[in-house]
Write a structure and sequence with these properties.
Length: 141
């Protein structure tokens, strides 16, 4: 699978997912609509560039977040959405830039509980190990 087809698949899934989120949770509304942002801060959404690499052992997602401090970036796995949610902000010359980005998890047989993430020099590295597909016998009564 080429990197371009993976990115195209993510973009399509993200657009569909974003529409669903807007309808049900209104997560991606501009914060000014809710009135909880100080007027002196200007928010500009940041859409991060990311790459996905995978092998038989794990899936690695590299997310480019230049200028963000580690303590201002949060990564969560949202079970109901089967997605990673990246949130954060950076301030440049008094302007606040915010990122809120969803990465749908479309791969099978991943061990989400063992996910690791590292942030260095503006690069968020997410490593999700694969697990062996399992089966269990179901008793027929």
């Amino acid at each position: 699978m080429s990197l371009l087809s993976v990115v195209e698949r993510f973009e399509r899934l993200f657009r569909e997912f974003e529409k669903e989120i807007e309808r049900e949770f209104e997560l991606f509304r501009i914060p000014f609509e809710f009135g909880f942002v100080e007027r002196t801060w200007f928010f500009e959404p940041v859409i991060p560039v990311f790459e996905v690499h995978e092998d038989e052992n794990e899936v690695r997602i590299y997310v480019n977040l230049p200028g963000f401090k580690k303590e201002n970036v949060k990564l969560r796995y949202v079970y109901d959405w089967n997605s990673l949610l990246i949130e954060g902000f950076r301030e440049i010359e008094g302007e606040k830039k915010q990122v809120k980005y969803v990465i749908p998890i479309t791969w099978k047989h991943l061990d989400i509980e063992k996910t690791n993430a590292y942030y260095r020099d503006g690069l968020l590295i997410i490593r999700i190990p694969r697990k062996q597909p399992s089966t269990r016998e179901i008793k027929i009564e």
